[in-house]
Amino acid sequence: MSNAHSHVGERDAVISGIGQSPVGRKLGRTGISLTVEAALAAIADAGLTRDDIDGLSSYPGAVDSSPGMSPVGVPELKDALRLKVNWFSGGGEVPAQLGAVFNAVAAVSCGLANHVLVFRTVTESSAQTAGRRASVVGSGGARVSGPMQWMVPFHAVSAANWVGMYAQRYMHEYGLQREHLGQISVNARRHAMLNPRAIFREPLSLDEYMNARMVSWPLGLYDCDIPCDGSVAIIVSRADAAADLRKVVRIEAIGSALHGRDSWDQRADLTTMAAHDAAPMMWARTDLKPADVDSAHLYDGFSYLCLQWLEALGFFPKGEAAGFLAAGESRIGLGGELPLNTNGGQLSGGRMHGYGYLHEACVQLRGEGGDRQVAGAEVSVVGAGGGPLAGCMLLTADR
Amino acid sequence: MTFQPLPTITDDTAPFWDGGAVGELRINRCRKCRTWFHPPAPVCPDCLSMDVGPEVASGKATVAAFTINVQPWAPDMEVPYVLAIVELDEQRDVRLMTRMVDCAPDQIAVGMPVEVTFQAVDDIWLPLFRPAVTSSPKES
């Protein structure tokens, strides 16, 4: 395959195994317990043993300041499993949630490790149950520093506020309506009803979406994802070291670019996000085109972020989201032109913070989707992040 | 006490956060190429000169995007309120995220001219914005 890049190093690595703990509300389990369950499942799925794992990577590292946002970091899992690693990395200053996967791919591609266990764990549902709201910065009375200081003191405290402003500007510019955003939420619910592990499995109509309470105009209740407890682990392996070739998912290309300002309010074009930087980089590293994509797994922490990914990835021309989404199920449903978020996304599946999409893309490419399987899925795209955070991957079946 | 998180003050950000004490919206500017930039940094993002420092901006701006927050994120938060990203008249790509005052939710619009007004809380003067009431100086 010809390519402008002499060495597309991500093709030296594959996803050789996947694992997921139970995902749900108030599971009543510790973060490390969920993480170990997902990790052991992924190792077994790859046909490997604990002793084969020589690398460890996670996003965003253990976080104390926001309850349940990331209760487990690399050191805790390493110690629990007594892993002997040659390379490890955990932290949040990466191209969004999938940055930990990109790091693992880079480590494998340059020979620092053969099998890297990558994980993401959340216990936000349990944390909120304990009487704390995970998503509000500055409510504890401490002074706010870093990027948050330019938003939170003005009561722009939630990502719903920041994303809401971007969505409003896009509506102003391009005639998008709430009904169009609603198609993303209703579609996610339709798919969640086919996924036994999804959190919300009752039907959701567009009327219910439109009549739900407002959160931060134009975003209402069903434009916002749902906090959950759970853990996802994947194994990134050197391509020629994968043990069970039936499970292998290939990494065709990665997009990790951030060319605009690393800021929620200073980006030059408020109708775009970092996804518009990452996606073109990904397409420049492959001969595949948007039309080749069989399933899309795109961040819907807020419905509008999913719209941004669809646009950034070139599934419709800039500004034409309304026309694309108006077609609803025939376009983004299971039997549609571009099946989107087949596991229910984060809107109905639960906020696994980027890793639910990656897990589901692998499920689809391995043909293990059951009732929600996209027939003949060979190419899937995964995109995670919003605002100044974005990272995406093009994955292919090993056929 | 009502919900009011406050920023940490540093040497770089102090002129921004306490300018309101004398009614000044202070924004960093390059003394060499005259580019305005925000947030404060020790280098001009355009010409890379390190001869930079705060200067007084007019406080006039234009609404670039807004949201009407309805959800009370803290128990003592009064809702709804209007948040906006505003572009400074001096240079449109210098923006502030802010809360609007004296502005009903159905009044806010992209392109609306606004002006700064300060709210003092402890040692911080928060630059809030309101619909412009003083007319802009006409170009002669």
Walk me through what this model shows.
The complex is a heterodimer of chains A (399) and B (140). Chain A has 13 helices and eleven strands. Chain A is of the alpha/beta class and 399 residues long. In chain A, the strands form two sheets. A nine-stranded mixed beta sheet of chain A has the order 3-2-4-7-1-8-11-10-9, sandwiched between helices. In chain A, strands 5-6 form a two-stranded antiparallel sheet. Chain A is globular. Chain A starts with 12 loop residues before the first strand and ends with a strand. Chain B has a single domain (14-131), classed as OB fold (Dihydrolipoamide Acetyltransferase, E2P) (Beta Barrel). In chain B, the strands form two sheets. In chain B, strands 6-5-4-7-8 form a five-stranded antiparallel beta sheet. A three-stranded antiparallel beta sheet of chain B has the order 2-1-3. The N and C termini of chain B lie far apart (49 Å). Chain A binds chain B through residues 133, 136-139, 141, 143-145, 149-158, 160-162, 164-166, 168-169, 172, 213-219, 264-266, 268, 270, and chain B through 3-8, 13, 38-39, 64-71, 73-74, 77, 81, 83-85, 93-99, 105, 110, 124, 126, 128.
In a few lines, what is going on in this structure?
Chain A is an alpha/beta fold and 399 residues long. Chain A has helices at 31-45, 74-80, 99-109, 124-129, 159-174, 178-192, 206-211, 275-284, 303-312, 321-326, 329-332, 345-349, 355-365; strands spanning 13-20, 55-58, 87-90, 115-123, 214-216, 219-220, 229-238, 249-255, 295-298, 379-384, 391-397. In chain A, 31% of the residues lie in helices and 16% in strands.
